[in-house]
Design brief:
Metallo-beta-lactamase, Chain A; 6 helices; about 30% strand; alpha+beta; nine-stranded mixed β-sheet
């Protein structure tokens, strides 16, 4: 897909099968039957993992780095996470052309393990890349569930801290979207009057475009996440703007269009 002069590509890594009553607690009381198309044949909500490759000629940026070469079976005792597997990002990156050492910057929306996986391998994969980490996310890293000391050290070795509005790559700026985590950040990619907003986990599912009041169980501050989600949805309705939802299964690129028949908006894949 082209965004002005940029070529943008989804780089799949794997998938998570989520128990729908957990990740979207407010969706439990009735709405799921009309939205059954979002569930697989085992009644799990499918959410993928991976990254967004942004290319400007020979230069390349990766936003988020997937789950990594790992997998985990479903834990019956966990309130919402089912089977999780990664491992495909490098193969899919190769199909798009770049090698890992062609990546100049890996920019993270936040430090959850399904977004930093390939940045924490031993030996390192992205040997030339600077890791752009939201400053407030790093300052609050001890509040990030599952972030091990080893993973934090791997990120820190190549880290550059960034603040909202700062350019992380020519034409790509950080966008504050806190609530999922304290420093959760999106990225605005602009070129020749076109814009793509990579919004990380501010939206986990297209369902939240219609229902921005539906927080996720992993949001550290549900009220804050809802405020920024509503602001994001309004921004996605602006002209010449598309969105990228890292967990949106097979509809990762889309436009948000207001529903003229009733209040709200919907996600339309592109």
């Amino acid at each position: 897909m082209q965004v002005g002069d940029f070529k943008v590509s989804y780089v799949p890594d794997g998938a998570m099968l989520l128990k729908p009553s957990g990740p979207l607690p407010r969706a439990v009381a009735g709405p799921w039957p009309p939205y059954g198309a979002y569930l697989n044949d085992t009644a799990r909500l499918v959410a993928n993992t991976g990254g967004l490759l942004v290319q400007d000629g020979p230069r390349a940026l990766l936003i988020d780095a997937g789950f990594g070469p790992h997998s985990a079976p479903e834990d019956p005792g966990h309130p919402y996470i089912g089977t999780v597997h990664g491992g495909s990002l490098l193969d899919n990156l190769a199909k798009l052309g770049p090698r890992p050492d062609d990546i100049e910057v890996v920019a993270f929306t936040h430090l959850h393990t399904d977004h930093i996986g390939w940045a924490c391998t031993v030996p390192p994969i992205f040997t030339r890349a600077v890791f752009a980490v939201p400053k407030s996310e790093w300052e609050n890293r001890r509040q990030v569930p599952g972030l091990s000391a080893e993973a934090a050290a791997a990120v820190e070795r190549r880290m550059r801290l960034v603040v909202p509005g700062e350019e992380v790559f020519p034409g790509v700026r950080a966008l504050a979207l806190p609530g999922h985590t304290a420093g959760h950040t999106g990225f605005s990619i602009t070129s020749r009057g076109e814009r793509l907003l990579a919004f990380g986990d501010a939206l986990h599912s297209p369902l939240q475009v219609r229902h921005p009041e539906w927080f996720t169980a992993s949001d550290s501050d549900p009220a804050q996440s809802e405020r920024h989600r509503r602001r994001l949805i309004a921004e996605l309705q602006q002209p010449h703007t598309i969105g990228f939802g890292i967990h949106f299964a097979d509809v990762v690129f889309g436009r948000v269009v207001a529903d003229e028949r009733r209040e709200g908006a919907d996600w339309f894949p592109v």
